[in-house]
Amino acid sequence: MSEIVGYARVSSVGQSLDVQLDKLNGVGCTRIYSEKRSGKQADNRPELQACLQFLRDGDTLVISRLDRMARSVLDLAKIAELLRRKGVVLRVLDQSIDTSTPEGKLMFSLLASFAEFENDIRAERQADGIAKAKQKGVAFGRKRALTKDQCLRIRTLRLEEKFSVAQLAERFNVGVATVYRVLQEPA
C-alpha cells in the first residue's frame, strides 16, 4: 500500500516546524520526518536520509518548499533522480510541483539540466584556475617529505653503504614506503 510521506526542515533550533507540519498533515501525510538542521548538505541530515531510505515504489513525498529538501539545484537533482529510480512521486506544496504530472516531470528535467550545466561551468572555471595557478608556479598537493638532495643521499647510502630501508627511514624521519618510492624513482 502506498503512503504519503512528509519531510519538514528548519535551519536552526530557534525556528518552528509548526507551519510546515500543519501543511503536511493537511494533505494527509501518514508519516512525517522532520529535523532542525542546516540544509547545506543532504548527507548531514539524518531524518532526510531516513525518509529517502523509507520511501518505496508508489509512495508520494510531500514537502512545503523545494528549499526545505535541498539548498542547491545539484543536490535537488540528485534527490529527484533517487526518487525517480524508486518510483516515488514528489509534491511541493508552495510551488505547486507534482512529478506525477507531465508539467512536474518537465520542471524536474529542467532543474536537472540546469544542475548539470552549473556543474560543468564550475568544473571549467576550476580547471582554468588550476592551469593559471600552475603557470604562476603554484604547487598542488602535499608537500614533498624529502628534498632532491635527500633523495640522492638515500640512494647513495643504500647503494654504496648498504643501509637498510628501515635505517634510511629512521635517519630521514620518513616512512619505509617513502624510502621505497625514492629508491624506485629514476635518479
From TrEMBL:
- The keyword Lipoprotein is annotated on this UniProt entry: no
Enumerate the UniProt keywords alphabetically. Answer: DNA integration, DNA recombination, DNA-binding
Protein's UniProt keywords contain Iron: no
Gene3D superfamilies attached to this UniProt entry: Homeodomain-like (1.10.10.60), Resolvase, N-terminal catalytic domain (3.40.50.1390)
Domain Resolvase/invertase-type recombinase catalytic: residue ranges: 3-137
The record's annotation in SUPFAM superfamilies points to: Homeodomain-like (SSF46689), Resolvase-like (SSF53041)
Q: Locate the active site.
A: 11 (o-(5'-phospho-dna)-serine intermediate)
Q: Which family does it belong to?
A: Belongs to the site-specific recombinase resolvase family.
Protein name stated in the entry: Recombinase family protein
